[in-house]
């Protein structure tokens, strides 16, 4: 058992999040997938902090969490205002910006 | 630099919580219901929080559980409750090839990154945080946060304020003062009309339950109030309405399911 | 060329000669309708003032040593080695021309007051006339080839504007375009000649160019001479560019008199006379000038015999007479003075003839068809007498203007004393006979015989504002020749320009020449009387005529030749170029554009608007980047 296991787990979680963004249509679920990707990155940061013996990685993860919180607040507000006008939370329905 | 050996306890914890986190992630992607997705995600996040604690970051572990699973996921659920379920929860893929391409690319990406990690961490020396945080995790983080990362920390506060304001602006609905109808007014509007009952639902009196089939009034005319928007009302009921006692017969016969006689009518259709 | 003194006193003001008519033109053109009431008076006054100034300047000039002054004005173009000073050269040659232009110009301005009295655009007419006088004066007074070129183009513009004065007539607009374009052909030659001068000598001023003529190679000199000749041919309506001049008669008659008879068309003669130091050194170019003059002389005379349009006959007569002048200046030192003397007398009598023709047209409701004239001698006595005097002067009736000057040219041609001399002399004598024939025909058809007027035409004599200039010009027709050749010899006056008077060899005695020419002239008159005067003139031109007549009626097929040699190939070339442009150039450009448009509209299809599609491509990109990193680090 080495730290590589944590890193591989984080990579798999990140990939699952990315694929989820691609295949799910509900904007809120897409958002959740993005949160999953951020969390997997945080795991990587914490793991490397442990490996290098500094707390800088943890600080970085802390900032990621703060930014993620801010992002979620604004993102969900946007989803709500879109839903209010279009009666849909599907990312496929907001497809007017095209050729 | 002393190489830290990972203990058996941690190994056991990893092999239990790792699959849990994976299962949570997969469950989130594959559940049809968005609420279930959120719950699966909470599962994963809790597992990650425990990982943080195990990896000598108890503060982050606590923050993960309190902020992420406590606050952010609750926010998700709130919004889910407001938005409700809709067609986007369907699992039918509308974009051709999207799923296949996403899966192939995902596997490719995981393979690439995994190979990269394997190469990069070959012979990785684990220093451990015992020297970096001699007085514990929280004092070490506090010291670093309020000295080296002070500016970033302050900027973060501006970001949070901005995000809060942005959310308010985006979610706010401008209403004329006094335009909001009270419950009293609503109930008056509902009852002091010509028809104090609820509007008929589509297909209530008809012999089809399609949205396109309008409701029929007692005299057989379609009720205009039941027309679906955007759909041409269909004349489903072409069958001659049975009249007279003999023809009505039993209640089953009145519905036309058992009595074969009306099926031979001029416009009789097979309702199988 | 001798050193030229800088101008002092009155001569320093000689730029006013140009400025006055130019100011008149500017006031009339910019003033618009407000100047309608007095515009013609202002236009006439500026030219009359310029005439007065020219007389005073010329009188002063007679006292100046060397009889040449240079009026330095300002730097016109200064770039690199080229430093063109705008300046005037007031010497005997330009003085003579300035007097002719302003003098005849003043008379024609006065005449135009009456002739254009009923035209609503009279002010515009006077503005253009003033513009023309200013440009023409710049042409003859400029002290460099560049100044001459500016004036050259200026008179071309004025000529265009005036030919197309009645621009609502398609024929006038077409004639103006034809004149302008054929002039451009000549102007290209002049411009090239100036370029060659600058390239070889680094200067374009007369003093600079003529001072270093000796340093030029013979071929270069010949090239300059021929290019200058091309310019002169274009402006003077000489072979092969003679076809525009008769068509230019679409303009009002005073324009024909001033521009297309007396002044502008003689600019070519001025150019060659002015460039005498160049032509003196290049016999080849001079021979070409001779040939051009002789050919044009005959073409003009032959074509003049056949036309029924009174102005066209006069126009071909002008072509023919300028041919005489080219012949004269082509003879070199022996002929310059003779040619210029003929130019001056011709300016008088041909302007008078045109004014007379204008008077006749005025009387005949603007008809120009001589077949519908006849018997006008009694109805228009003043016109008849003045026109008759001009006619006699033109055909070389003894002791009138044309007699002296034309004889001088023929004598100078015969004085070459070689085969060329005999040929040229013979052509000139033959031309004199033809001139007598067609002018007598014109006189007989217009003023004698039975009246063949259109119904409803009531001829009447013109007002005195028109007849007075005609009378003055007819006096010039009578006396100018005698004055210029015998009383105050032009040769003496022009001596500073052309050097000592050429001592004539007199191969044939002048008396003999005079007798022969007069005899040939009488034969021409008699022939005209036999052909035209004896018989009734048919109202419509006979159709069954000899090939010679048909050719003459078609002006010896000049237009046909131009069309088949220049116009048709030009049109083919244009069509071919248009085809190449449409198919080749446009095709390539449009094809490229269509290709880009098509491919971009196809590429645009990838912008589906689905965020997930874009995210997929992002993931693909991330995979590629990760793969690349892996490949680089593992390598």
Automatic annotation (TrEMBL), chain A:
GO terms for cellular component: NADH dehydrogenase complex; plasma membrane. GO terms for molecular function: NADH dehydrogenase (quinone) (non-electrogenic) activity; quinone binding. NDH-1 is composed of 14 different subunits. Subunits NuoA, H, J, K, L, M, N constitute the membrane sector of the complex. The lineage of its organism: Bacteria, Bacillati, Actinomycetota, Actinomycetes, Geodermatophilales. It is an enzyme of class 7 (translocase). The keyword Transmembrane helix applies. Gene3D superfamilies: 1.10.287.3510. Keywords: Cell membrane, Membrane, NAD, Quinone, Translocase, Transmembrane, Transmembrane helix, Transport. Belongs to the complex I subunit 4L family. The keyword Ion transport does not apply. It is a multi-pass membrane protein. NDH-1 shuttles electrons from NADH, via FMN and iron-sulfur (Fe-S) centers, to quinones in the respiratory chain. The immediate electron acceptor for the enzyme in this species is believed to be a menaquinone. Couples the redox reaction to proton translocation (for every two electrons transferred, four hydrogen ions are translocated across the cytoplasmic membrane), and thus conserves the redox energy in a proton gradient. InterPro entries: NADH_UbQ_OxRdtase_chain4L/K, NUOK/Mnh_C1-like. It catalyses: a quinone + NADH + 5 H(+)(in) = a quinol + NAD(+) + 4 H(+)(out). This is NADH-quinone oxidoreductase subunit K.
């Amino acid at each position: 058992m080495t730290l590589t296991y944590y890193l591989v787990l984080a990579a798999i979680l990140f990939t699952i999040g990315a694929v989820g963004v691609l295949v799910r249509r509900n904007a809120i679920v897409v958002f959740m997938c993005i949160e999953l990707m951020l969390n997997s990155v945080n795991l990587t940061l914490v793991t490397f902090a442990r490996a290098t013996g500094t707390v800088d990685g943890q600080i970085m993860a802390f900032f990621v969490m703060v930014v993620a919180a801010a992002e979620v607040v604004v993102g969900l507000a946007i989803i709500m205002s879109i839903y209010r006008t279009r009666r849909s939370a599907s990312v496929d329905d907001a497809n007017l910006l095209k050729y | 630099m002393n190489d830290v050996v990972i203990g058996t306890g941690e190994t056991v914890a990893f092999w239990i919580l790792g699959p849990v986190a994976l299962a949570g992630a997969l469950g989130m992607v594959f559940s049809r219901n968005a609420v279930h997705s959120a719950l699966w995600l909470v599962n994963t996040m809790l597992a990650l929080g425990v990982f943080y604690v195990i990896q000598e970051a108890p503060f982050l572990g606590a923050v993960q559980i309190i902020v992420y699973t406590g606050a952010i996921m609750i926010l998700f659920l709130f919004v889910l409750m407001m938005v409700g379920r809709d067609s986007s929860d369907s699992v039918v893929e509308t974009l051709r090839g999207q799923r296949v391409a996403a899966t192939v690319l995902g596997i490719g990406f995981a393979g690439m990154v995994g190979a990269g990690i394997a190469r990069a961490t070959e012979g990785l020396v684990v220093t451990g945080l015992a020297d970096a945080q001699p007085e514990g995790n929280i004092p070490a983080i506090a010291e670093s946060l309020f000295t080296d990362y002070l500016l970033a920390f302050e900027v973060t506060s501006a970001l949070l304020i901005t995000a809060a304001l942005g959310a308010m602006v985006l979610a706010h609905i401008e209403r004329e003062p006094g335009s909001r109808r009270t419950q009293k007014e609503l109930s008056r509007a509902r009852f002091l009309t010509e028809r104090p009952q609820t509007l008929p639902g589509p297909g209530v009196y008809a012999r089809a339950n399609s949205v396109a089939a309008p409701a029929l009034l007692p005299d057989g005319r379609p009720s205009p109030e039941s027309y679906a928007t955007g759909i041409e009302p269909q004349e489903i009921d072409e069958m001659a309405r049975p009249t007279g006692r003999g023809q009505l017969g039993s209640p089953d016969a009145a519905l036309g399911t058992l009595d074969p006689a009306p099926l031979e009518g001029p416009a009789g259709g097979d309702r199988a | 060329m001798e050193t030229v003194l800088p101008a002092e006193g009155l001569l320093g003001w000689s730029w006013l000669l140009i400025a006055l008519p130019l100011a008149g033109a500017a006031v009339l053109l910019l003033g618009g309708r407000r100047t309608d009431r007095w515009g013609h008076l202002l236009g006439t006054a500026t030219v009359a003032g310029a005439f007065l100034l020219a007389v005073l300047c010329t009188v002063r000039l007679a006292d100046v040593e060397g009889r040449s002054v240079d009026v330095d004005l300002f730097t016109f173009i200064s770039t690199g080695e080229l430093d063109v000073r705008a300046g005037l050269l007031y010497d005997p040659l330009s003085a003579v021309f300035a007097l002719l232009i302003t003098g005849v110009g003043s008379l024609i301005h006065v005449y135009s007051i009456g002739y254009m009295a009923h035209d609503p655009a009279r002010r515009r007419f006077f503005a253009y006339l003033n513009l023309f006088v200013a440009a023409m004066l710049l042409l003859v007074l400029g002290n460099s080839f560049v100044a001459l070129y500016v004036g050259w183009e200026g008179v071309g513009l004025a000529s265009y504007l005036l030919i197309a004065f009645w621009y609502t007539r398609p024929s006038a607009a077409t004639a103006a375009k034809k004149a302008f374009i054929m002039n451009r052909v000549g102007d290209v030659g002049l411009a090239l000649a100036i370029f060659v001068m600058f390239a070889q000598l680094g200067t374009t001023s007369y003093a600079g160019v003529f001072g270093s003529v000796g340093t030029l190679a013979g071929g270069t000199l010949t090239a300059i001479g021929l290019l200058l000749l091309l310019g002169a041919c274009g402006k003077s309506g000489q072979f092969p560019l003679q076809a525009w001049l008769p068509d230019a008669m679409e303009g009002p008659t005073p324009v024909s008199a001033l521009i297309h008879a007396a002044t502008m068309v003689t600019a070519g003669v001025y150019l060659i006379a002015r460039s005498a130091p160049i032509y003196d050194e290049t016999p080849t170019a001079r021979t070409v000038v001779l040939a051009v003059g002789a050919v044009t002389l005959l073409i003009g005379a032959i074509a003049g015999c056949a036309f029924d349009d009174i102005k066209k006959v006069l126009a071909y007569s002008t072509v023919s007479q300028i041919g005489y002048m080219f012949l004269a200046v082509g003879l070199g030192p022996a002929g310059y003075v003779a040619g210029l003397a003929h130019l001056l007398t011709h300016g008088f009598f041909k302007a008078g003839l045109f004014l007379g023709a204008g008077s006749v047209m005025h009387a005949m409701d603007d008809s120009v068809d001589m077949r519908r004239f006849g018997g006008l001698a009694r109805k228009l006595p003043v016109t008849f007498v003045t026109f008759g005097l001009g006619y006699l002067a033109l055909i070389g009736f003894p002791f009138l203007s044309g007699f002296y000057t034309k004889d001088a040219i023929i004598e100078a041609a015969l004085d070459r004393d070689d085969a060329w001399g005999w040929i040229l002399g013979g052509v000139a004598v033959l031309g004199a006979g033809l001139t007598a024939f067609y002018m007598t025909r014109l006189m007989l058809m217009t003023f004698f015989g039975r009246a063949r007027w259109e119904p409803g035409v009531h001829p009447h004599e013109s007002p005195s504002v028109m007849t007075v200039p005609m009378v003055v010009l007819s006096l010039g027709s009578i006396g100018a020749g005698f004055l210029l050749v015998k009383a105050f010899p032009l040769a003496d006056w022009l001596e500073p320009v052309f050097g000592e008077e050429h001592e004539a060899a007199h191969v044939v005695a002048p008396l003999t020449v005079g007798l022969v020419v007069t005899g040939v002239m009488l034969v021409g008159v008699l022939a005209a009387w036999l052909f035209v005067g004896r018989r009734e003139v048919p109202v419509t031109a006979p159709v069954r005529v000899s090939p010679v007549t048909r050719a003459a009626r078609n002006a010896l097929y000049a237009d046909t030749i131009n069309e088949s040699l220049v116009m048709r190939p030009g049109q083919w070339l244009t069509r071919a170029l248009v085809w190449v442009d449409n198919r080749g150039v446009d095709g390539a450009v449009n094809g490229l554009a269509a290709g880009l448009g098509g491919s971009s509209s196809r590429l645009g299809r990838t912008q589906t608007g689905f965020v997930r599609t874009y995210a997929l491509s992002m993931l693909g990109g991330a995979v590629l980047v990760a793969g690349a990193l892996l490949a680089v680090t593992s390598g």
